Amino acid sequence: MKRGTAERRRSNDDRFRVRPGAPKNRHQRFVSRVLTEVSKVRAGALRRRTSRPTALGRGHVAVRFGGKQIAITARRVAIKVRLVNLKQAGKRSTLTHLRYIEREGVGPNEEPGRAYDAMMNEADIDAFEARSHGDRHQFRFIVSPEDAGQLEALRSFTRQLMNRVEADLGTRLDWLAVDHWDTDNPHTHIVLRGKDEAGKDLVISGEYIAHGMRRRASELATAWLGPRSDLEIRQSLAREIEQERWTSLDRALQRQIDNGSVDVDRLSASFPQSQTRLLMLGRLRALEGMGLAEERTTGKWHVHAELEGILRAMGERGDIIRTMQRAMSGVQREIGQFEPTERPEPIVGRVVARGIADELADRSFLALDGIDGKAYFVPLNPGSELEALPVGAVVEARSAFGVREIDRSIAVSVQDGVYRTSHHLAGGNPSPGQSPADLVQIQVRRLEALRRTGIVERLADGVWRVPADLPQQGARYDRSRRGGLVVEVCSHLPIEQQASAIGATWLDRQLIGDGSGIIDRGFGAEVRAALRQRADFLVGQGLAHRRGGRVVLVRDLLSTLRRRELEQAGKTIASETGLTFRATEDGKRIIGIYRRNVQLASGRFAMLVDGQGFSLVPWKRVIEKHRGKSITAIVRGSGASWELGRQRGVSLS
What we know:
By secondary structure, this protein is α+β, with helices and mostly antiparallel strands. Helices cover 40% and strands 22% of the residues. The protein is built from 22 helices and 25 strands. The strands form six sheets. A seven-stranded mixed β-sheet has the order 19-22-21-20-23-24-25, with helices on one face. A six-stranded mixed β-sheet has the order 8-11-10-9-12-16, with helices on one face. A four-stranded antiparallel β-sheet has the order 1-2-4-3. A hairpin with a 2-residue loop joins β6 and β7 (300-303). α3 crosses α9 and α8 (154-169) crosses α9 (206-225). The radius of gyration is 33 Å and the shape is globular. It starts with a helix and ends with a strand.
């Protein structure tokens, strides 16, 4: 009996299983809080761009086992990455960037780029953008193999690279890519969704972004093309000796710097190969010529503390100079870079080239041939539309850092820190053709814009509390919104066409003015010649006459030219559409459906159609989203105020 009981007990012991009870609520709340905080830490670590990338996130194990150093014989691949916060970038950021990298001229034969993914050679970017809705973030890469020209099949290379990245990260990835062949070295843009295959936020280790992906790309390029020969390595390093940019030789030197100095004896120990040591010494001599290194005692070199930053800046400037030299087609000009923070006065010039300055950040540039005889590189604000700035157009670039006149006029109207519309309807200092009510209406719109940012406070209808430093705060608001730079098109027409155009042109405004700032050199000399041709044309049209070697213009020349051009354009459109053209009257309200815009020498005009005819009204970009809808305009001189949608009585000048 006892024996049977013991056997049953042993049998029951063998069947013992741990059955943990359900966690109590307070434990669950604790676990949830821990997981929430861990997620915050991971997200914050991913956003931070520090010199020590975080180890959190997928891919850190692959880096740990693969290491950071790449063999000297391996093919080199440069990878740039940008992490985009999609909420901050805006709802259309993904589609805008994809359209941007698919632009005209980036293909092998200057055709538009074609997006592809892991399976399709022509991927649907609209579908990819739709899948990206709700994503917290997105990764954007530029993969640039040093020997991309030899790879030939960049598309296959990219797909194999992303397969290896998927293996390292342990998840399937949703990505699109576009190959670019518009530079000296072909490269690939990759847009990667910030979601893993389970639909969770994709967090990639900073170490993997900095080292792991580049290592995989290098391994793949080496497998395709074979390792670099000793001759290729020596030739590549020898080319770096005199280069005014950050190079691999500088990176190797940086690892040898101790308290700002490099010891030649340490170089001999670290680089036993005499050829490599001579290359390093040659680089030090070249840096000495740039003022970035100095041999203070025999074999002891002092290196500039900001070596990397200075060399990177020099490399960017060298790229700018080469870009400008290509844009100017070898024509000698003094070259400068327009910096809004350093140049309060605007520059006016002809657009001779436009292109991409930073493809990751969607930053573009203009090359201007200035009326002052100089050439300028103008980096544009992110998201600027190059199509609105055609080659040959005359534009003005100016700083957005200055104080606006509207803010000054508001500050003058403030009493005891309060602005009241009722007190200023009879005052103010309106422009010619502008009533006090018009000025107050413009001030109210500005106050409402500043109210939304917290700069002013609305106390009641028509009453605002205004800070004493409103002009300065308004300038800071404009800088944050505009990016520090404003580029306005003075004329879409090249000056050659302006010389004989029926319409109010930029040349006419120069004839009316004193022509200051136009130097008789380069584009300035061309402008001087075009002004003489324009004067002859106006004399022939009866709009000017000569008096004692001087050209005298008729009164209201610009409005006369504008009216003539609008009448001519109105007749042309009337013959095409069968509608009756109605000329506008200053100060009269015009109501109609916005059909399209028309580019004329006098500027761009909106076509407003009612039941019986149409009018041509000075256009503004803000009305484009109202195409096909009924809107109201009030023409004042060469401009117009617009009333859009439900905002009756609130106009946009």
